Amino acid sequence: MKFTDADLHSRGEAPFIDDLPLPAGTLFAAVYASPLAHGRLGKLDTRNAQAVPGVVRIFTAADIPGANQIGNVVQDEPLLPATEVHYAGQPVALVVAVDAHTARLAARLINLDAEALPAIFDPREAYRQGQLIGPVRRFVLGDVEAAWTQCDCIVTGRVDSGSQEHVYFETQTALAIPAENGVLKLFSATQSPALVQRLVAQVLGCPMHQIEVEVPRLGGAFGGKEEQATAWAALAALAAYHLQRPVKLALRRGEDMRMTGKRHPYSADFRLGVSAGGQLLAYEVHFYQDAGAVADLSLAVLERSMCHATGGYFIPNVRITAASCRTHLPPNTACRGFGTPQAVFIIESALYEAAQALGVAPGEIQRLNLLQEGDHFPYGMQVQHCRLRRCWEEAERLFELERKRAAVHTFNATETLHKKGLALLPLCFGISFSQTLLNQASALVHIYTDGSVSVSTGAVELGQGVRRKLQQLVAGLFALRPERVKVEPTNTVQIANMSPTAASTGADLNGQAARMACLDLLNRLKALASTTLGTEAKRLELRDEAVYCGAEKTELDWSTLIGLAYSQRVSLSSHAYYATPDIWFDRQREQGQPFAYHVFGVGLIEVTVDCLRGTYQIEAVHVLHDVGQSLNPLIDRGQVEGGVVQGLGWMTIEELLYDRAGRLATADLTTYKIPDIHFAPPIAVHFLEQAANPVGLLGSKAIGEPPFLYGIGVYFALLQALQAFRPDLPCRYQAPLTPEKVLLMLYADE
Ligand code: LUZ
Ligand code: MOS
Question: What is the pTM of this model?
């Protein structure tokens, strides 16, 4: 690889699926989506659309040769609905034309005769009406009922958190190319090539081996392409199947925002009991998750929320109840953090409320209750290699916490119209898919006769630098310059049945598999070198592209060794399979050990609020993060910075608004504001030192999702500043805390 993905991205040269040269005769598709949030389908009038010159064909549910079903966890999602629509923006028909403009133009001429049905947009209302996805689940630790009597102070409250659009730079895209014998090659912007392969085969009614899925790279994903890339791939495939022509479907930003699901909004009721000294004694919480119209990954998201309900704290008596509520919004889905941020915002809100009631600083309660080695989570697992207290203590010194607190105090005592706030957030994030079976990966490593290396895994490069990490890993194991190692695009022919690149496990799982394949090859090569040199294999070592015996360089350099292996008929390819050991979960008992390990850290956020205008400035973020022994500190730093900014956006300015009919009103980036360079504060990232992870790849820890959580601190920093201005402020826990809401909180009388 001459350039890494990062080089290409910074030059604007990284090609995405939309940039691929198209085969002659490629057609273009556009989606006709439901204008209704809930309705019974009548006649779909496509005559005007058909009449547009350049329109080739319009597809509906009736054209699906196999199963009209793309639900994965629950089979509740038709590719194209036949009888009812369940959200505004749901694809109803596909228009295929000679160019994309014509296809879109024609789609606008489709008329749907549908009868509107009552729609629900609030998860609590859905819950009242019994509109649930899956069973209501409960995790229990200790005995909350008995514990309430021992609490000196009990607080209750309600917490709401909003949705969040993924805003991947690359919108949902698919290109389907028919090949001989009914085979379809699909380029799909997906985190889950195997899922796309399986569901497209199901939709077309053909065996999976007829469908090849390739992912060159993604322009961001953030969970939004874990499950929700499937529909577009299946639609393009459906058209290509019937027309036997290549078909491309690439959503525009507005279409993408209207048609795809987002982060799950949560509403929750909590009850938290503490001792007079601030010890957390009992916690009861009820999560109402807004799943949207179909199950998608909602149940897995809910499970991860439950696993993180107590955040970075130990609470001996806990009762967590969780319901996934079906509404008539687009199906909410995986989004960086996968239910953890929602759960953490809720426990942090409860803790803040308790601090108010006790009249102490939240930081004191946080510090007192941090998880320690061997503490139990409400799902039975004990925390191991716990570094949270260590992180907190080091952070206090590193961030000069006392000095910063005093500065805020002084500022607030002297300034009248501006107030400052400061909040800490302890991080504890479980790594592994909570669905144990997904924690598997495989890798295929070829060494070509010139000594160059090709590595295939199931990992999808989505901007997180996983290819760079794999390249470094393999180059390191073979003692080669990185340029000698190429990491291939992700393809279902090279790697079968891969899990999604998700749950922060991409480098971890696929790296473990790649490492095993490399070690296998190394064993073969060392055996060969040992025979050739007449030296014991265990004394041989690869260094600087050559075979060494102890400190002595032997006559075998890498190229010679590989040439020799080929001529001696030693296989230069290896396939390896990795499954995370020692993890399990029993959903009957709601107990288990779902995570291989946890990631820890502490974040500090400082804000200043302009109490006349309601505007605020995030002054600085400091992070002390436990990434184990980093595989690549520069990439990991980027992941922390990006995660923090995305978390800040979720808590503050990112607000999705729907009209009364359930149609997204903020369907572009002028009305849906995301953090930009002016919004982003300086972020000081420190990694915990001497912190190799005993169960991670080369001592590393996963990095993708956990840092998102640090951003949650901003809510409580803002509350502190607001309370400095208005001490009687009734605290509300309702994110996002937009400047408009700040202004209302400061001046409106409730
Ligand atoms: N996807 C999934 C995830 O299917 N299961 C998980 O536990 C998960 N966690 C984080 C992100 N994606
Ligand atoms: Mo994800 S939220 O696709 O790791």
Answer: 0.98
